[in-house]
Amino acid sequence: MGLEVSGILGLVLLVINVWIIVRIVQSTAGTARKVIWIVAILLLPLVGAIAWFFLGPTG
Predict the structure, then answer these.
(1) C-alpha to C-alpha distance for 24 and 36, rounded to whole angstroms
(2) 8 Å CB contact between 28 and 36
(3) Distance CA 7, CA 50 (A)
(4) Are 54 and 35 in contact (CB under 8 A)?
(5) Residues in contact with 37: Cβ distance below 8 Å, sequence separation at least 6, in sequence order
(6) pLDDT value at position 37?
(7) What is the pTM of this model?
(8) Residues in the chain with pLDDT < 70?
(9) Quick one: pLDDT at residue 44?
(10) What does the H/E/C string look like for 11-52?
(11) Residue 13 · residue 45 · CB < 8 Å
(12) What is residue 2's predicted lDDT score, i.e. its pLDDT?
């Protein structure tokens, strides 16, 4: 029983994750924090995006 994301939802999630990664790279956070966030986004795209939205840097 797996979670499969495809179609338009998958495309939307991809665009959101790319946008988040660009925002992470452009942030003033330390390198270690950037790497941790990017790894979280790449390994768990949906959960990582939600976590970044609530716990990520505010601006």
Answers:
(1) 10
(2) no
(3) 20
(4) no
(5) 24, 29, 48, 52, 56
(6) 93
(7) 0.81
(8) 1-5, 58-59
(9) 92
(10) HHHHHHHHHHHHHHHHCCCCHHHHHHHHHHHHHCHHHHHHHH
(11) yes
(12) 57
